[in-house]
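Lab meeting, item 3. Inverse folding demo.
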C-alpha cells in the first residue's frame, strides 16, 4: 500500500557515523563526571562493621559509684551513678566532680553543679584505710570559702563511700598546706562527719552527738542529707524523732511529715526497724507524689545506722502500706531522677 504525499528521508552513511561518534563522546564525558563525584564522596563505614563495643556498653561493664554535687542552696547532694567499670574507680569518682563541659551537663540534668574547680587533677594513694589526695594547683582557684568547704567535704565523703577508705588527708601540688585560698582548713585527717551541718542554736558542749537525716528539697526532686547536733543517744529512735521535727525553718528544705503526727514507738529486731505513728501519718498519701519522697527520706534516715536493713511502718499499731519498697537502695539515683524529671535539661 502506498501513502500519498509522504516525504522521503535519505541518510548518508557519513552522517550516521558522525552522529554515533558524538553520542559516544557525550556518554564518556558523563561517566567521567560521575566517577569524579563518587571519588569526592566521604567514606562511611557501615554500622554493622563497627565493633559492638564502640556502639554500646553492656550492663556487665558498668558499676555504681557515689558522686557529691552542690545544689542551688549550697547543700552537698549524694548521687548514685552508673559508670564504666574500670581500675582506679576512686580517682575516677573524684574526676566526675570537677567542673567541665561534660560534668557540668551531667550534673545540670539533676539540677546540680560540680564542686571542684575546673582543671583540678588528683593524685591518690590509699593504704591501710588512709587516703592521701594530692590536689593540683587549680584547686586553689575556688570562688569562695563555701566552694572550698564543699570541695573538701565532697572529696572526703566520696572517698569514704569505699570500704577501703576510713579517713582522708590532703596535699596541694605535692606540698602540705594548712589552708586553701579562702581559709578552709585542710591540715587534718578527715572522716565522715559534718555533711551539711546545721548551725546549732547554742554552743555545743561535751556529750553532743551528730545525727544525719534526709529531707526533700523544695522542688521534690532530690533528697538532701542534713547533720544535726543533739544531746541524746545517737540511735535510730533519736533520728526518727528529729526527722519528725523537720528541717530548720530557713533551710530551704521540706518538712516531709505533717506536724500533727506523733511518734508512738520505735523498735529494732533482726535488722528491721518498726516505727509506730499516730493516725495523722496517713495524711502522707495526700502529698503530690503520694508520699514517695517522704518515705524514702525516712527510710534513708533509718538505714544509715549499722544493721538496719528494712523499715516497717505501723499506724496506731496496725501495718501501713508504704508507697515505696521497704528496702531502699540509695537516696538519689541519677537515672531515676532524670527519668522522673526529664524537663530540667534537654540535651540533644
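The presenter then showed the designed sequence:
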Amino acid at each position: 500500500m502506498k501513502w500519498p504525499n509522504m516525504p522521503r528521508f535519505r541518510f548518508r552513511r557519513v552522517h550516521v557515523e558522525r552522529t554515533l561518534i558524538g553520542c559516544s563522546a557525550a556518554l564518556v564525558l558523563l561517566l567521567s563526571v560521575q566517577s569524579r563525584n563518587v571519588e569526592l564522596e566521604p567514606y562511611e563505614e557501615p554500622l554493622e562493621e563497627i565493633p559492638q563495643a564502640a556502639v554500646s556498653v553492656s550492663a556487665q561493664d558498668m558499676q555504681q559509684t557515689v558522686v557529691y554535687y552542690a545544689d542551688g542552696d549550697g547543700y552537698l547532694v549524694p548521687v548514685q551513678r552508673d559508670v564504666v567499670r574500670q581500675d582506679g574507680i576512686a580517682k575516677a569518682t573524684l574526676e566526675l566532680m570537677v567542673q567541665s563541659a561534660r560534668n557540668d551537663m551531667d550534673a545540670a540534668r539533676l539540677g546540680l553543679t560540680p564542686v571542684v574547680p575546673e582543671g583540678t587533677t588528683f593524685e591518690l594513694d590509699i593504704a591501710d584505710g588512709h587516703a592521701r589526695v594530692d590536689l593540683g594547683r587549680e584547686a586553689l582557684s575556688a570562688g569562695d570559702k563555701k566552694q572550698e568547704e564543699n570541695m573538701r567535704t565532697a572529696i572526703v565523703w566520696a572517698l569514704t563511700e569505699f570500704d577501703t577508705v576510713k579517713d582522708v588527708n590532703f596535699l596541694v601540688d605535692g606540698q602540705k598546706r594548712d589552708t586553701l585560698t579562702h581559709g578552709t582548713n585542710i591540715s587534718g585527717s578527715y572522716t565522715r562527719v559534718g555533711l551539711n551541718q546545721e548551725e546549732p542554736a547554742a554552743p555545743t558542749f561535751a556529750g553532743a552527738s551528730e545525727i544525719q537525716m534526709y529531707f526533700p528539697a523544695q522542688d521534690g526532686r532530690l533528697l538532701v542529707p542534713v547533720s544535726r547536733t543533739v544531746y541524746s543517744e545517737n540511735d535510730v529512735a533519736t533520728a526518727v524523732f528529729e526527722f519528725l521535727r523537720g528541717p530548720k525553718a530557713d533551710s530551704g528544705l521540706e518538712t516531709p511529715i505533717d506536724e500533727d503526727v506523733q511518734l508512738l514507738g520505735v523498735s529494732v529486731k533482726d535488722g528491721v526497724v518498726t516505727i509506730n505513728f499516730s493516725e495523722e501519718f496517713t495524711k502522707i498519701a495526700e502529698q503530690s507524689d503520694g508520699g514517695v519522697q517522704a518515705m524514702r527520706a525516712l527510710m534513708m534516715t533509718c538505714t544509715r545506722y549499722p544493721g538496719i536493713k528494712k523499715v516497717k511502718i505501723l499506724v496506731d499499731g496496725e501495718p501501713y502500706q508504704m508507697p515505696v519498697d521497704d528496702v531502699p537502695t540509695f537516696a538519689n539515683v541519677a537515672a531515676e531522677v532524670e527519668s522522673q524529671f526529664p524537663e530540667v535539661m534537654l540535651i540533644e
